[in-house]
Structure formats: structure tokens, C-alpha cells
Amino acid sequence: MGRIAGRFGRVEPRRRARALVLGLLSDLPRKNCWTLAEHAGDANPYGLQHLLSRARWDADAVRDDLRGFVVEHLHHQDAVLVVDETGDLKKGTHTVGVQRQYTGTAGRIENSQVAVYLAYSTPLGHAAIDRELYVPRSWTQDAGRCRAAGIPDTVAFATKPALAARMIGRALDAGVIASWVTGDEVYGGNPHLRTDLETRGIGYVLAVACGHRLATRAGKFRADALVKKLPKQAWQKLSAGAGAKGQRFYDWALADIAGEGPGHHQLLVRRNRRTRELAFYRCYSATRVPLSTLVRVAGRRWTVEEIFQSGKGLAGLDEHQVRGWTSWHRWVTLAMLAHAFLTVVRADEHAPHPRSDELIPLTCNEIQRLFTALVVGPGHSPAHRLDWSQWRRRHQARSQASHYRRQATQA
User: Fold this and answer.
1) Which intervals hold domain Transposase IS701-like DDE (predicted)?
2) Which residue from 130, 212, 258, 333 has the fewest beta carbons nearer than 10 Å?
3) How far does CA 296 lie from the centroid of its chain?
């Protein structure tokens, strides 16, 4: 918290931010302004709501501090930047960016809010270092709706790959050293993102669909048609990295393709050794690299899924109950900071302690339990809990009466 203290001009929001982050690191079953305020010892949630909506501080500046914190502690020569989006299911239509759209969280089209994240992934650990909220055209074409949600007038519609390119550029311009970028088909199929990375001289291993068309010396082919031309000896058994149940072994093959600019352009193919299912990656590198390097980068893409899982499960990344543009950015940034703290502590604990055959290394889950029990300390008095019970019931009674009055008026 000392790293971001200077971003707050007054001591009150600084203390509120600390209380919010401590609440996000707690073992509360639900994390929103009500539960976090009760955990912090406040009499009501108005202070935390003020911190997220009206207090004067810059969430983007805190994001820059967060990025520096993560890179400083997890820095490694094999660093990879990973881009991916995640969705949060929402009700209603007033929450910023919400519409019926596909989200991998539900695996179908749902009323949801989608955001794109940039992760910094190294052998020491991985954490999110940037975020961009996806604002659909249905919002950007409705000025009144955007104004009501607090979206700045300068915000225009941008695709998810464009948001990813924006975050990657910010990280590289800030001095983050990474030789590779990886992501799923949403990003691999976008030529503008690929061109931007090639212009910067950054290698990429980006997933593409089986129907993605590739140029070769013999003409253009679909990815699934090109793989059929590979000889049997082109396949090699390699691990994409360690998983929960051991090394993740697949068969891999590589084929040269044509690119519009200099450098080496290739199609990487992954084949499941049991189901024979295929996955395709479009690759670029300024100089030729071995197959094992491309496989390692492709395997790093899954770390962003671990970030989403632990960030939501441990730090309340998806539990925000805020509607506005400013509130969303502030909540998500502080949740990313809470998760980054767990990741950095985990990396610091692994470094000096040799691996034991009797114990697995400390996980973020276990670090959160120990931190909550040993550092944060015991809860509050029974009187505080009873006061909050009365506050909740009183607030809910007013809300219920308001709903009934509105219903009667409409009828």
C-alpha cells in the first residue's frame, strides 16, 4: 500500500483504499461495499462507496504502480505478455458496458459485462497488470446512456484486439521487457494486432481458428487443410508446461508460412495425444527460434485463466456491484492489486525454500488463509455485528417500500 499512497491527496481515501484491499484479501464469502465496510469496522458503506465513485484519485496511476510492483518482483528473461477477456454476468441494463453478448464465463450469450486484461507471466508467477472495459457499439452510439454511466466523451468503440494492442503498447512504452505475446483466437485472427506487434519487433504465438487462411509459397490454405500436408516425422512430443496433474504433453508440428514483412512467420499445430483434437497458432519472430520455444510460449497462455480463477475466487475481481465507469475501474484495479500481492508473496516464499517431497509449495489460497488468520487479526465485537444487521434490514426495508411504490405507480 505504500507504493500507491502518493496517489491519494488526502489521508481518508488512502485509509479507505487500504481497508478495501484488506477486505478483498479476507475470507468473506461475498465481497461488496456492504460486506467490506462491515469487515473494516465502519458503521455503513457510504465511505467505501465514496472512495469508488466520487473521491479524487487516479485509478490509472495506481494501475501503473501495480504494473511496476509486479514486474519488479516477477521479472524474468522469459517473460510473456498474455491477453484475454473475461465476462461477468449482470442483471439489468444500466451497469456500464452491459449487453447480451457471448462470454466464456457462461459459455453462451448472456447479459454480461466484458473486460480485456493484460497479464505478465513468467516462471516465477503471473498476475494481471492492465485492464480495459469493452464498451459495445450499443453503448457508444447512445450518448445519453454513456453520460449516465460516466463514460468520458473521449471513449469511442474499440474492438477487443484494439484494447489489447492499447494495453500492450502501454506496457512496452513503460519499459516492461517481454519478448513474446500470446492470446486466443479473438486476437490471433486480427491482422491489425499482428501488424502492430511485428512493427514493434515483438514475437507472438496467437491462436487462430481451423478455418483461418494462411498464405504459403503454394498458395492460400485453411489451417486445417495445411496441417494435412505435414509429414508424420514433423510431429514431436513436447510439454506445454506443468499442470495440476503433471506435465501437459502434446504432439506439436511447425510449418512455414508467408508474411507481409520481414521476420519468420509459422503455423504451430498442437495435437491432443488421446483425442487427436487439433489447435492452431499463428507465430512470428524476428529471428528463427526452435519449436520448443514456441511451445513454451503457447503453454503460457493458460496462465491468464489461472489469474481469472484466483483473482475472482480470492480477490473479488468479479464481485463489484458498481454501475459507473469510474467505480468499475477503481474496484478492478484494487482487486488486481490484492491478487498481485498474493502472487508476489508466493514467489518470494518459493525463492529461498527448496522444494519438499512432503509439502507442495505455498499456493495463493494458502497464503490468503495465513494472511487473514495471522496478520489481519480477529473480527469485531458482537455489538458491531448487531448494528450492521439492523442497518442492512433498515436499508432493505426502504428499498422494498420504494419498489412497491414504483410498482403501484406504474400499475
Assistant:
1) 8-214
2) 258
3) 20
Which helix H or strand E contains 164, and what residues bound it?
A: helix 160-173
- If one counts every other C-beta atom within 10 angstroms of the C-beta of residue 140, the result is 15
Residue 118 C-alpha cell reads as 493484460
CB within 8 Å of 212: residues ≥ 6 apart? 188, 189, 222, 223, 280, 282
Cell numbers that stand for 394 in this block: 433498515
Domain ranges for the chain, please list them. Answer: 60-323, 380-410
Whose cell is 469485531? That residue is 380
Provide DSSP, 351-384.
TTS---SSSPPPPHHHHHHHIIIIII-----HHH
How many whole angstroms separate alpha carbon 379 and alpha carbon 38? 10
The pTM of this model reads 0.91
Residues 146 and 150: their CA atoms lie apart, in Å, by: 6
Q: At residue 206, what is the residue type?
A: L
Contact 379, 41 (CB under 8 A): no
What is the topology classification, in CATH, of domain 60-323? Transposase Inhibitor Protein From Tn5; Chain A, domain 1 (3.90.350)
CA distance 400 to 389: 16
How big is the CA angle at 46 (ends 44 and 49), to the nearest 5 degrees? 130
Residue with cell 514431436: 236
The residues near 97 (Cβ < 8 Å, ≥ 6 apart) are 113, 114, 115, 133, 134, 135, 136, 139, 328
Residue pLDDT tens, the chain, 411 long: 999 999 999 999 999 999 999 999 998 999 999 999 999 999 999 999 999 999 999 999 999 999 999 999 999 999 999 999 999 988 888 899 999 988 877 788 899 999 999 999 999 999 999 999 999 999 999 999 999 999 999 999 999 999 999 999 999 999 999 999 999 999 999 999 999 999 999 999 999 999 999 988 888 999 999 999 999 999 999 999 887 778 899 999 999 998 877 889 999 999 999 999 999 999 999 999 999 999 999 999 999 999 999 999 999 999 988 899 999 999 999 999 999 999 999 999 887 766 767 777 888 999 998 898 888 766 778 888 788 788 888 888 888 888 888 888 887
* Widest Cα–Cα separation across the chain: 78
C-beta separation of 102 from 109 below 8 A: yes
